[in-house]
């Protein structure tokens, strides 16, 4: 009886690059509107998180909303822009 070894090809999983979704401060929208828009567009955020993001953008000019794969980042960015907010994405 002979013993045979079966070799399996090695598979390396590629991790999708991640992108930062940024919210920029503006002087047009109320703080309440920005918080509400964040909650509607990025539905995984809690209200305290949305308030923190809004305050960060207000005080520092820009805030990190979330970091995710490109498709989601584009979706969030476009959603925020459709609400009249200024949002951009950048590679992590």
How would you characterize this protein structure?
The protein is an alpha+beta fold. The protein has a single domain (18-91), classed as 2-Layer Sandwich (Ribosomal Protein L30, Chain: A). Helices cover 41% and strands 23% of the residues. It contains 3 helices and 3 strands, in the order E-H-H-E-H-E. The chain has a 3-stranded antiparallel β-sheet. Helix 1 packs across helix 2. It is elongated, with a radius of gyration of 20 Å. The relative contact order is 0.28. The mean pLDDT is 92.
Helical fraction equals 40-55%
The first-to-last residue Cα distance is: 55 Å
Please give the order of strands in the largest beta sheet.
Answer: 2-1-3
**Number of strand elements:** 3
Averaged pLDDT: 92
- Spans of at least 5 consecutive residues whose pLDDT stays below 50 are none
Which key features would you list for this structure?
3 helices; 92 residues; alpha+beta; Ribosomal Protein L30, Chain: A
List the helices and strands and how they pair.
Blueprint: E1 18-24, H1 31-41, H2 47-60, E2 62-69, H3 70-82, E3 86-91
Antiparallel strand pairs: 1-2, 1-3
In short:
The chain has helices at 31-41, 47-60, 70-82, and strands spanning 18-24, 62-69, 86-91. The chain has 92 residues and is of the alpha+beta class.
């Amino acid at each position: 009886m002979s013993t045979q070894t079966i070799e399996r090809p090695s598979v390396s999983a590629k991790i999708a690059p991640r992108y930062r979704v940024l919210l920029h401060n503006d002087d047009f929208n109320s703080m309440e509107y920005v918080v509400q828009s964040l909650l509607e567009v990025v539905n995984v955020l809690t209200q305290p998180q949305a308030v923190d993001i809004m305050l960060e953008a207000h005080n520092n000019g820009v805030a990190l909303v979330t970091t995710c794969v490109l498709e989601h980042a584009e979706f969030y960015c476009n959603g925020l822009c459709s609400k009249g907010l200024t949002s951009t994405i950048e590679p992590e």
